[in-house]
Write a structure and sequence with these properties.
The chain has 521 residues and is mostly helical. It is built from 26 helices and no strands. Helices cover 71% and strands 0% of the residues.
């Protein structure tokens, strides 16, 4: 509700001393001085001090007969009090500002008061009252381009709330035209961003046609302004709509354009958000590797923004992103298991149990995240193992077992182009290594094997022998623990003890042999 035009009028009205002689722009201690000091306090978020200055400006203006300053000080104080939830007092001050401006014969200041009253009514949900005030303000002060721009913007907000999309777009376009006439690029961008924000609101309510129309209208204006960062926002929204309405090719095209525009504009935030939305599209299309690559990009970009104090809720965006990351990785892990009813749920169980062991070892949050994600993807390479080998009901030949032993390396090959924010790849490569040097694929020994790989390795063995497979029945919890005790040389003492502490009782099933399970990982 700020108004440079009304402030300029106040400056002009107080530039001449009451004696008629021309002196300094403001008299020391004048109402105008106090008004501008109050504005400075308000901009600095020193609200109690701003209120005091506005009240002092009002008293001084009344005493000295500075009517223009009085009207503006009353209006500005009303705005501040409204934001402090003192709406009744704010409304009274605005009405008084309007009457003072009318008495002065200043249509612009009167229209400013009406526009502010409309804004207060709008924020309290009184749409009819708000619209009435805005239309009055338009009739009274529409000759001021700067005021016209803000009134049209407010009328656009009301039309949008009522679902009158065409009318809303028309008002926003008039607002932008008026802002451009005053060379107010910031005002233009603000009006256009209203369109984008409303598009997002419609999107969240699954009103996809309205969201697309709002975004397309803003895109046309941003194109005229040559604002690449803002065009990126609009393209992102259009891509999101196409994604949710089942048009993946168009969605991918628009979202990639959004990324390109953000990069060319140097907008890290827009690039991160567009990459995240494109990742969600890749997820719905089953392109998990592409999804993870894009999520990694978004995570890295959001990380660059976390120290920015001018951007709100970046941490929240990162948290949401990491949740999406887990979902993509989990779905990919489950898709690997879906072809084999015997192993379905294996990765989820390994991930949860590995976390329990990691906590016993007091691993930090970063390590726990890596372990959880690594557990979901530890068997990724099995997609390259022939089905008849993976599900063979009898013993494997040496050649077949050598094929199975390749799955850790194949998993890494599938993820070669993905740079994870967490150290997952050692888990995928070395979860079948043994502390005594008898594992695979690299026959690492002792502490050469990363702790995370050992943790996933021991719970992987436990889950494998306590669930039925095509070549043998399941093992009971007690029998499994006895077999793991017999083979405890495969893991470090710390990992073994943490496993024992973390999983004291995980179910009861029938007996089997651990050795056979190790031959069929």
């Amino acid at each position: 509700m700020s108004n440079s035009h009304s402030e300029e009028w106040v400056r002009q009205a107080t530039a001449t001393r009451r004696s008629g002689s021309v002196g300094p722009l403001f008299k020391v201690g004048s109402a105008a001085d106090l008004l501008h000091e109050a504005r400075a306090k308000e901009r600095a978020a020193s609200i109690p001090e701003a209120v005091q200055c506005y009240e002092a400006a009002i008293s001084t203006a009344e005493r000295n007969g500075e009517t223009a300053v009085l009207a503006e000080a009353l209006r500005r104080l009303a705005i501040v009090l409204h934001y402090r939830n003192e709406s009744e007092r704010a409304d009274a001050l605005c009405n008084r500002s309007y009457k003072v401006a009318c008495g002065l014969g200043n249509d612009v200041l009167a229209a400013e008061a009406l526009n502010t009253m409309g804004g207060i009514a709008l924020r309290t949900g009184a749409l009819e009252e708000a619209q009435h005030h805005f239309i009055q303000a338009l009739d009274l002060g529409g000759q001021s381009r700067e005021l016209l721009a803000r009134i049209e913007q407010n009328l656009g907000i009301i039309a949008n709330i009522r679902g009158q999309i065409v009318e809303a777009v028309t008002h926003y376009e008039r607002s932008v035209e008026a802002y451009r006439a005053t060379n107010d690029e910031h005002g233009c961008a603000t009006a256009c961003m209203c369109l984008v924000n409303h598009a997002e609101a419609h999107f969240l309510r699954e009103r996809y046609d309205e969201a697309r129309r709002m975004a397309e209208a803003s895109l046309a204006i941003f194109d005229q302004l040559d604002s690449r960062a803002d065009k990126s926002e609009a393209y992102k929204m259009i891509g999101m709509v196409y994604r949710e309405t089942g048009r993946p090719a168009l969605a991918e095209s628009r979202l990639r354009t959004a990324i390109e525009l953000a990069v060319s504009a140097g907008s890290v935030l827009n690039e991160a958000e567009a990459a995240r939305e494109l990742a969600l599209l890749m997820q719905t299309m089953g392109r998990n590797q592409d999804a993870l690559t894009l999520l990694n990009t978004a995570h890295r970009l959001f990380g660059r923004l976390e120290a920015r104090v001018d951007l709100v809720n970046v941490r929240g965006k990162v948290s949401t992103l990491e949740t999406t990351y887990f979902e993509v990785v989990r779905e990919w892990g489950q898709s690997i298991e879906s072809a084999d009813s015997y192993t379905f749920g294996h990765c989820e169980r390994v991930a949860q149990r590995a976390l329990s062991v990691a906590r016993e070892l007091e691993c930090d949050d970063t390590a726990q995240t890596a372990i959880r994600l690594g557990a979901y993807l530890h068997d990724l390479g099995k997609v390259r193992v022939p089905h008849e080998v993976l599900n063979k009901p009898g013993p494997l030949t040496r050649e077949e077992f050598e094929i199975v032993q390749m799955h850790p390396l194949w998993g890494l090959e599938l993820l070669a182009a993905v740079e994870f924010p967490w150290d997952l790849k050692p888990i995928i490569r070395w979860h079948h290594e043994r502390y005594d040097g008898t594992g695979y694929p690299d026959r690492l020994r002792g502490d050469e094997i990363p702790l995370a790989a050992q943790i996933v390795g021991i719970v992987d063995v436990y889950d494998a022998i306590t669930t039925a497979r095509s070549y043998r029945p399941a093992v009971s919890h007690d029998a499994a623990m006895a077999e793991i005790e017999r083979c405890r040389s495969w893991w470090s003492e710390a990992v073994y003890e943490a496993f024992i502490a973390a999983v004291p009782q995980l179910g009861t099933r029938g007996p089997a042999l651990l050795a056979e399970t190790i031959q069929r990982p």
